[in-house]
Amino acid sequence: MGWLDANLISVLNGFALAALLFLIAVGLSLVFGTMDVLNLAHGSLSLIGAYLGVALVGDGASIGAFVLAALLAAVVGALLGAALAAMTSAITDHLRQALLTLGVALIAADVLRELFGSDPERVSAPAALAGSVDVLGRPYPVYRLSVVAVAVVIGLALYYVLERTQAGAIVRATVADRGMVEAIGIRSQVVLLGVFGVGAALATLGGLLAGPVLGARPGLDSTVLLLALVVVVVGGLGSVRGALLGALLVGQVQTLGVSLLPGQASFLLFGAMALVLLLRPRGLLPSPYAHAGGHA
Amino acid sequence: MPALPSRRLAPAAVLSTAALVLAGCGGGSLSEDSGDGGDDTVTVGLVLPASGVYEPLGVDMTRGWELYLEQNDGMLGDREIEVVTADEGEGPDVGVPATTRVITQDQADVVVGIVNSATALGVKEGLASSEVPLIVANAGADDLADGSEWVWRTSFTNGGIAASLGEQVAEDVGDEPVYLMAADYAAGEESMAGFREAFEAAGGTVAGESLTPFGTTSDYQPFLTRAQNSDAGAIYAFYAGAEAVSFVTQYREFGAAEDLPLYGPGFLTEGGVLEAQGDAAVGVQTAMHYSNLLDTPENTEFVDAYVEAYDAQPTTYAVQAYDAAAALDAALATSDGTSGADIAAALGEVGEFSDSPRGPWSFDDDHNPEQTYFLREVEDVDGAPGNVVQGELN
């Protein structure tokens, strides 16, 4: 069996993992990089999405029911994001933001544990996508392939909005110079609310989509937060392209890398992160708009 | 090279540190009562996880313990029992101080419980020097019980469960090799070593092995692909809890189930884990010292009482705690007094437990349970997967 035959599944699976990581991490990156807000509750948002999947998606659900649950998760995420934005808007100090959102994350973890118990739960993939297809003679879950497609669509939409629309221009301008944006009559609080809402909605949506892959369990919130953080740090803060590149890299390290060097599996991820930080301290593709000064 | 943009990096450091702290957080304590009972009252320190990843085990074990006490009107060996509880948490950082507190502050005469092997090893010496016996109701580290009069175990040894499968798997696979997988920590290594020894002694060969990072692996595809690329005819795997759910689900999704039968210790498909796995687990064969589907009068009676009390099926973990109470009951019935030394001496004289739900068992020379391991296979039982007993293994 050739190298490609043997490792194609790993490469493919790396893309699926990257797709999920991208959806979850891009919100963290945007809020963190563009709005200068540290949100340690980001992993909790994602876990809330996963548990919404547990509650709303039964075994053998139709694609329609799954999409409906995903939309609902996004709405819930947007509302929670807005609440977080309101909470953090008055705080400019990173340490205080971290403490506040960490507190929110701890409370959320306990509430989720009360509601759903501490047994690991699994979210079922919709019935039509539950099977496997043959990829070079090896079965591969259809659901994971569809996750890649969804992530590509959302990624393109995000890119378009940020780079080609007026709303995107305002967001970029707020990042570059908040004072100037306010001077021309735009309330930066509203922009913050919007970005936070969208970022949080993507996190809950990503969490729900990740449900059939990662499941839902206490502790998954910090696992996801850590992975999202690695993606953001590797890719560079505040850019959609950075989050994408970071997610792709982390995805491949976690699958192809582990497959080739199983003995170093637990070291690979952070080894890769350390290497990137050594060579490119700001990440691979940091936001070109990120301002040098502090908070306005 | 431009100056490092430290403003951008510092928050990242704060973020990752905080995330790691979050991951390591344990729960507080739940100890309520203090005070030493009179001479006839025995104070039992029940140390079980009420927080962290092992909480589901703690819930099951607390239920098993309480069920036995309820069935005996709160008395063990005709003596009043005062139970002080403490949260074992996830690891020794929480579990060791919690155990120390129940023997110092709460003056426990005997400690029951302990899920995590590292915690059990961490409290072993302190308990011995305080002359407080420890009845381990889960932790499976091979060397934990070594004949010391202060350590007794009602659960299993990692190596013991694994070894019981060796001959069976060797017989099933014929001349095909087996691929070994385990979570990369002490229990996984002991399990893999125990299986390998018994399997090779029975004439089996190993195609390869993977130790997967413990607690951080959410995707087993790279390891499963290695097993599929090897010339193995079956997989032996040690996983528990959320890891077992991910592993078995992905074993099914990536098609390994189609040509590589899966064997492992029963934790792979036990209790809530099996519920979450659902149909993905059908066909998985495990070794365990108990199954709630064990068809004996003793077990039927136990299961009925358990379901009646908690509206849930009992797990192996519940039985281990139930039997810990039974062992203490038998010891207190014959012990001269209620001191730790009296209880420890009496534990050495308890003989065989003939009416345990798991079947007859007794303490061996090392104070581990001498018991029957069963081969179980996950089958559909009345619309839900269950561990159907196929036969005895040793």
Describe this protein's structure.
- The complex is a heterodimer of chains A (296) and B (394).
- Chain A has 296 residues and is mainly alpha-helical.
- Chain A has a domain at 24-218.
- Chain A contains eleven helices and two strands; from the N terminus they run ααααββααααααα.
- Chain A has helices spanning 3-35, 42-56, 63-88, 94-116, 142-164, 166-176, 178-183, 188-214, 220-235, 240-260, 265-279; strands at residues 132-135, 138-141.
- In chain A, a hairpin with a 2-residue loop joins strand 1 (132-135) and strand 2.
- Chain A is globular.
- Mean pLDDT of chain A is 88; it is low at 291-296.
- Chain B folds into two domains: 42-156 and 297-363, Rossmann fold, CATH 3.40.50.2300; 159-288 and 374-392, Response regulator (Rossmann fold), CATH 3.40.50.2300.
- Helices cover 42% and strands 20% of the residues of chain B.
- Chain B has 13 helices and 15 strands.
- Chain B has helices at 6-24, 55-71, 92-104, 117-129, 158-173, 186-201, 221-229, 241-253, 256-259, 272-277, 297-310, 316-334, 340-347; strands at residues 42-48, 75-76, 79-87, 110-113, 134-136, 151-153, 178-184, 206-213, 234-238, 262-265, 285-288, 362-363, 369-370, 374-381, 384-392.
- In chain B, helix 10 links the parallel strand 10 and strand 11 (285-288).
- The radius of gyration of chain B is 22 Å and the shape is globular.
- Classes of the chains: A mainly alpha (296), B alpha/beta (394).
- At the A-B interface, helix 1, helix 4, strand 2, helix 9 and helix 10 of A face helix 1, helix 2, strand 8, helix 7 and helix 8 of B.
